[in-house]
Amino acid sequence: MTTEEKNPEKKAETGAEKKRRISGYHQGDVSTVLSVDAVAKEAQQMATKRPEKADLWKLAGDKPQLTIEGLVAGYGQMEILHGVDLAIGKGQSLCLIGPNGAGKSTVLHSIYGFTRIWKGSISMDGRDVTREKPNRKLAESGIAYILQDNSVFPDMTVRENLLMGGYLLDTPKEAAEKADAILDKYSRLAARAHQPARVLSGGERRLLEISRALVMDPEVLLVDEPSIGLEPRFIDMVFDILTDLQHRDGKTIIMVEQNARKGLEFADLGYVLVAGEVAIADRGDALLENPDVGRLFLGG
Q1: What is the CATH number of the domain that holds 192?
Q2: Higher model confidence: residue 145 or residue 10?
Q3: Are 108 and 220 in contact (CB under 8 A)?
Q4: Does the N-terminal or the C-terminal CB of the chain have fewer CB atoms within 10 Å?
């Protein structure tokens, strides 16, 4: 007699466990969830008619602030992006969604100077910044990169973390003035200004990471997974902060967001990346209504 015959419940449990191990992009019952491989395969079929560059420029208002043209980039000898185009206008927001491994974060890394670029160009206000180093992108081109979670210095105070964001400013005094201005803006941080950053909640840490990037007063914010690791109650707070930065302060925001629905609800524009290429590009609200995007990335 086999183990399964001796213990039929064991067989049922094993099947349930296998079902639970299926992962994907839906938010429903696991019986309706597509596997990651299935999502990637079906998304690939969506990429049969890539958007033309003119379409992307039109979405950006025909006067884009930041553009990517024909970008071929990756890490070491591994090519991840295969001719990506992108355009975003001043004060707009853009959310990149797509399957795991599609190259979403690599787009942000390439803009900021963290990848190897074989072909293509990146321009800011009409100026080629393709080969600029990250420090120059921040100090001279006004492009700031906000890392994923856990990038604060836990043993430094909140104010000291903010001062670190001004390390490229001319004087420590200037950095201190900028840091204090941010504390005046965000009372949640001001209340803990002299406490170590390790005492902050997840939402407060994310606010600190965003605020640290603001010390240099950048024009463009590259935001990598703003909701990652956060409890639901803090996710809305973070997106409210990003909305304020865009609409009150005029910041241009390009983000990668695992919560595709939340990202597209926030963003003016949305791109679906598949296998290192832009498969679909449209207004964020239009992508929310796209049945294929909904089925693959938004939970049906």
Answers
A1: 3.40.50.300
A2: 145
A3: no
A4: N
Could you tell me which residues come within 8 angstroms of residue 190 by beta carbon, excluding any fewer than 6 positions away?
183, 184
Task: Please report whether residue 55 resides in a domain.
Answer: yes
28-37, 41-50, 140-149, 222-231: segment of lowest average pLDDT: 28-37
Q: How far is CA 156 from the centre of its chain?
A: 26
Task: Give me the number of domains the chain comprises.
Answer: 1
Centroid of chain to Cα 142: 18
Q: What is the pTM of this model?
A: 0.84
Residues 230-241 have pLDDT tens digits of 888 899 999 999
**Domain range for 226:** 35-297
The answer to whether residue 262 is domain-embedded is: yes
The one-letter code for the residue type at 186 is Y
Per-residue burial over 184-201, b if 16 or more Cβ lie within 10 Å, else e, is eebebbeebeeebbeebe
- In this predicted model, what pLDDT tens digit does every residue of 142-163 receive, in sequence order? 999 998 767 899 999 999 999 9
Separation CA 190–CA 232 (nearest Å): 23
- Is residue 154 classed as helix, strand or coil in its secondary structure? coil
